Amino acid sequence: PEYFPECLNLIKDKNLYNEALKLYSPSSQQYQDISIAYGEHLMQEHMYEPAGLTFARCGAHEKALSAFLTCGNWKQALCVAAQLNFTKDQLAGLGRTLAGKLVEQRKHIDAAMVLEEYAQDYEEAVLLLLEGAAWEEALRLVYKYNRLDIIETNVKPSILEAQKNYMAFLDSQTATFSRHKKRLLVVRELKEQAQQAGLDDEVPHGQESDLFSETSSVVSGSEMSGKYSHSNSRISARSSKNRRKAERKKHSLKEGSPLEDLALLEALSEVVQNTENLKDEVYHILKVLFLFEFDEQGRELQKGFEDTLQLMERSLPEIWTLTYQQNSATPTWGGGVLLCCPSWS
Question: Which portions of the chain have biased composition (kind: Polar residues) (predicted)?
């Protein structure tokens, strides 16, 4: 104990936290001091969740709460708050803080649950759920608290506004897709003429092949399920997004640029993926449109979405025309959005 301060400085300087913790009993003051130092080191390295767990393990609950708030681990933050014996008002304040962070992460269902359970604010929770298009969860709270008036004042208007936004988005995607496709055909014709005249280099087919593979995997994957997998999409979208970002530094959509055709393929691929990624959202809003007898709006959205998907499906063989496609199965869509609404058929 006499030389522990010097020992602790050495541990910090040489980053020997894990080794040092093995030498002390978890119940000792030295173990706690090393743990706190380790947690602070992890915070400096922006490793907030491991830092929070380290603080919580050694009983440094206030530091643990700060770390969990920083990294957005709301469940652990609330666990630590209970250990700190937060009052009802303190829990409500913490709940609102956490809900705000969760909304920033587009985790509206989690944010609403925190508001309802810890801030006792079910009305704000319903509004967050509507903002996040969690229609059925919003309805669950409405009926739980017997506030059927909210259906007329907030739920129905929110659903109808979302339907309009989806229609506008689909119109925009269709226009963008058609424009890029038309330009791509023109560029390819110009390139072919230039190649015949010996004025152009060979197109880098490998990159175009990558784009075809990426897009065909999106459309083929829709056959496996009528519902879209958010977790898988986030993983694949992140890696492909990073790659596309790097590629776009040298590919330009400016007319006449050397690799304009590849830039157009990238843009078309992105439009296809963005549209396909709407499948789950459209499926859920169609259910509530049907529930509240908004049949006209429901038919319009379902037809608009299916028309957009079919336009892209028909265009894929024309857009990706390289010889490698002869050895690949033609990508097909999963049939659009399926909903058991006989009256819309």
Answer: 210-223
